[in-house]
Amino acid sequence: MSKPSEKKISSLENEILSNETKLYTYDDEYQEKYLKLRPWEKDDMHFKKVFISTLAAMKIVDHAIRGEKFEICGYLMGFAREGVFYVLDAVEMPIIGTDSRVEIAGQMGDKANVYSMNYLDLMEKVGRGHKYIGWYHSHPGFGCWLSGIDCNTQKYMQTMNKTWFALVVDPYRTKSKKNIDFGCFRMYNNEKTNRVLQEFDSIPLNRSEEFGIHQNKYYRIPHFFFQSKYEANIVKLMYKNYWVDTLSSNALLVNEDFFKESVDDVRAKMNAYNIKKKANEVKNKAMNEIHQKKINDLATLSTQANANLQNELIKGIIFQKNN
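and the corresponding structure tokens:
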């Protein structure tokens, strides 16, 4: 998990994150003033950071892993202040999509919205007045970015709630990297805003066209993780329950299909690259960049496979000695 360094965190952010009362008490008066000021209308990239609690991150990842190859979604609870989102909790939606899309719409969407409002009411009754500030969904195996449907969903939500962002999680890459794979995004509102050239992880060949069509409609917001004293004990209890599963699981077998698909995808990209190279459709500089990206993709896959293999060998040596 990435944690904000002292250089990346402001005095106000530190004051909020280190104060349990400020963090978990919803300030209605401030939020009302913030909405009236509407700073995002002057600056299309007003929101610069997202802080995600460890507990919320664990709930999102667990939900995505349980969804396996099917996309899942949910809402994010917290607040926004001075261009920063603070995510304190994640709420699962009773919606399961396909292996390529999930949408909060239609009759199922209506039921999900009723469920989410009831959840808000229950939280207020127990003294948690935080609101929904975003939504999350999974991209099983194809990276963190926004599809056309995702862009439409986020644009609609962002119109209804100005302090709203989208979070995408890839459960397969999370398991493969042993590192949470998140992406946080906001749609551009102003057509005149200068678009920022964004760096993304490898996009599967069969998704690259859709990615290319929509990638300039939104921007990525850097995200960081934090753990409050309140949730530290909860996380410890969760680790006590799940450490056996971590030791007993075999990462090589768990991610076997994803690894094979990733290798096949790189091979398909190399074939497409060679065809374009022979046809002289790619200039030398662009050709070298494409070639280097493919080499980096293969190196990443090799590193992940070797790391998982070493983990299995170490576990084998430890348990053989104990036996």
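(Above: one complete record from the training split.) The radius of gyration is 21 Å.
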